[in-house]
Amino acid sequence: MTPELNTFVSFMSLTMIFVLLFWLYRDYRIDAVRQDLFQLRDDLFDKAAAGEISYEDSAYGMIRSTINGMIRYSHKLTLPHVFAIGYATKASGSSQGGKAFGDGLRAAVEKLPKDQREVYLNAYSHMNAIMVRHIIISSPILLFFLVLPLRALNLLNRVVLAAQAKLAGQLDALDRMALSEGEEPRLVKAAT
Amino acid sequence: MARKRTKVQREQELAAHKFATLASSITTVLTELIKWGVVALLGYYAMRAVEALAGKSTNADIGISFFGTVEVSVTVAWIFGIGGIIYGARQRHLRKNTVERLAERNRTLELQIDPKRSTSGLTLRGDTRPEDIK
Lengths: 192, 134
Description:
By secondary structure, chain A is an all-alpha fold. Chain A has 8 helices and no strands.
């Protein structure tokens, strides 16, 4: 092959790699995170059906609506979006210390028996872990320079947990936004 | 929703929500611009390579002789090929996960309507049973 042909093949391959990473892989990640969130929502539903928790608990409605909001807007769960939303919420001055969602949920489960409270708090923690994991591994740049090397070293889960703690404020803002979006169809339905 | 919020809190939340939505929209526009910008740049260089192939210019004019070596073009093509295979395998895995998540619920609900419901006997993930392969 001539150098010119090699250059052409290189650029065509680079373009295809770029499309694969920034479009196809991202779409795959959106489907994958939705699958995880559906699974979490189903588990919660099954626990309520089995009588472990109640469909009438305000915490149940809160978590389910938040998961619904996450499912609906998982195409926007990217690192730049998380920082933009976290920054905007902080800048607007309504963050109440950045833990409004978590505090609201804890207040909703406060009077419940310990085992029921744990079901909700575990679901909340699991939901945030799903999101953080998705945010990290759906970024093509982090995938190359962080996820693949860490996966090789089996350290990814520890990094996800550490990131979850670091991003607590941003996640809370995201949770509140998702809850608001998840509640929207119900509120519209109730109003009509 | 039993959670009670005052009017002021609700208004504050709505304002924050609007601001966050705006920030999110701006981020979407910026990231899309960057993505399409990179595609345009790669397309431009591919086009210049076609011009070089047609004899209108040379690799030296393009200014990136690095991509003109056999080793680089073969390596990049291999990365794309392997990446495509991994992508396909992950998609298949995700589809099987979805089948597994939905199949059991479907079976339980259908059994409530028709207790004599028969089954294809496939595994929960929609695969052929190992004993049927022989």
